[in-house]
Amino acid sequence: MVFKKEYASVYDSLYQSKDYKKECDFLEKIFKKQGKNIKTILDLGCGTGGHAFILAKRGYKVTGIDRSEDMLKTARANANKAGFKIDYRRSSIQDLKLNKKFDVVIAMFAVMGYQADNDDLALACKNVKEHLKRGGIFIFDAWNGPAVLTDPPVQVVKDLKSGDKRIIRFTRPEVDLIAHVVDVNFKVLVLKNDKIISETEEIHKMRFLFPQEMKYFLQVAGFTGIQFLPFLKPDKKLSANDWNMTVIAK
Ligand SMILES: C[S@@+](CC[C@H](N)C(=O)[O-])C[C@H]1O[C@@H](n2cnc3c(N)ncnc32)[C@H](O)[C@@H]1O
After folding, report:
1. What is the Å distance from ligand 1's center to 194 Cα?
2. Which of 67, 76, 244 to mutate to test the pocket of ligand 1 (most atoms within 8 A of CB)?
3. Coil, strand, or helix at residue 125?
4. What is the pLDDT along the chain (250 residues), one digit of tens a residue?
5. Which of 50, 109, 197, 210 is 20 to 30 Å apart from 148, CA to CA?
């Protein structure tokens, strides 16, 4: 398991500069381009609800699914504080059975990359299809295989302030070219008054996805009209240098 209590508790601080509003604008541009009247959205791997919260605020009926109860705790607290009704439920994507269909399914911030082996990825695609209305759209972002090969991930340190705490995250990636997986080794320290008050480590197994293999997984699950774009660029074509790709399937 990843996104356990200690990591989940610093998640929003670690990504405080991630522009969720801009990402939701991008999603809405895609909705518009598809010419659909979107009302219901299923957010898979919703985490702390960065997208779900903004989309609910913009009037969509959102259901959020995540397998990490600790991430969902923050998501629920944020929604309650703002008085929004968001249906957050704990489930893995592979076990998902809501008996309900949606206009759109999203899986944002490399959620599909967490489905690192073929069986999990195939089952995720099948379950998404089963939760979409006829003509519904699946939108997700992922690491683009060709770009990961030419520009592999490197060690980085993130050092930031959050209230009276300092959070330091060390990231050490180990690339497995045969498995198409990067083991992202995270070590997170939380300091208060220069003293370490918590320390945690997690290894996130992240699959980088190649457009043609992804297309095949989606086609096998019954999707058509599959498109690849560079992340946040709805009018551009994906190139081999774009690290982050957006995939749209119907
Ligand atoms: C990088 S976080 C993204 C969270 C959120 N979408 C965002 O943009 O901030 C990935 C999330 O996907 C969830 N996740 C990954 N694989 C999952 C699976 N198979 N079933 C349910 N949740 C999953 C994790 O628990 C985590 O909360």
Report:
1. 31
2. 67
3. helix
4. 899 999 999 999 999 999 999 999 999 999 999 888 899 999 999 999 999 999 999 999 999 999 999 999 999 999 999 888 899 999 999 999 999 999 999 999 999 999 999 999 999 999 999 999 999 999 999 999 999 999 999 999 999 999 999 999 999 999 999 999 999 999 999 999 999 999 999 999 999 999 999 999 999 999 999 999 999 999 999 999 999 999 999 9
5. 50
206 near 143, Cβ under 8 Å? yes
Domains of the chain: 5-143+210-249 (3.40.50.150), 147-206 (2.20.25.110)
| Most informative mutation of 2, 43, 111, 244 for ligand 1 (most atoms within 8 A of CB) | 111
Contacts of 1 (CB under 8 A, 6+ apart): 67, 68
Q: Could you give phi then psi for residue 112, rounded to 5 degrees?
A: -65, -25
